[in-house]
Amino acid sequence: MPHLQALIFDVDGTLADTERDGHRVAFNRAFVAAGLDWVWSVELYGKLLEITGGKERIRFYLDNYLSDASLPDSFAGSLSEQIASLHAAKTVHYKQLLQENVIPLRPGVKRLLLEAREQGIRLAIATTTTPANVTALLENAIAPEALDWFEVIAAGDIVPAKKPAPDIYEYALQAMNLTPEVCLALEDSRQGLRSAMQAGLKTVITVNGYTQSQDFAGAALVIDHFGEPDLPFQAIAGDGQGQAYFDVALAKYLLAA
Ligand code: XBP
Ligand code: MG
Fold it and tell me: Which domains are delineated in the chain?
């Protein structure tokens, strides 16, 4: 019987609802600052989120939504260099935005992290986002020392292929010297589910506004959030054991199921 040894968390949409009011706003601020008339509405961004990775998302937008897939002369270098510099500016805007308006952790996340630490369950992050964004989120939503709660922060370009490829989860497992059988992945999106499952991980999904209608076939459990004692989660698919909130005991049950 596999014994739970680690929880591996996705970041955007899972630890916090960062996409609509965080990343999307940061992208738009970077576009304005660069003199671009691009505007990613809430609805358009929902479509663009199919492409993981901010640089890849900008390129997808250029190729699929703009007649002339080029950037103004003010951008020097190759298209990929131009996109990289635009994305670097976006990351600065994202960090500033999180300092201005802290985006809180989702329900139950801090409770689950603290319980896992108390019970000696190892913690890791496996995310597509840029490492600096993980730092900004944890420092603003929890405290600087929260970064040390995670044994591994596998993020962004550290792997050749982003989600739904399994690379980022395989990187985290290898760094912790753990096999997928003793770990549980916590995600919010179908791309994340596909990535974790291809890495051999059982996965729990907490849906959000952008992902609630996606296909989560194969997930061990699909819930609306991790819940709190006074804010019960809704089990959308899978066996929540009738619990009000997701805890280490339920994680262990799902791993063994
Ligand atoms: C979500 C992503 C990221 C963010 C934007 O990551 O796909 O690209 O949307 O961050 P995850 P960057 O759900 O895996 O945490 O602009 O830094 O990519
Ligand atoms: Mg996510």
Answer: 6-17+105-256 (3.40.50.1000), 19-99 (1.10.150.240)
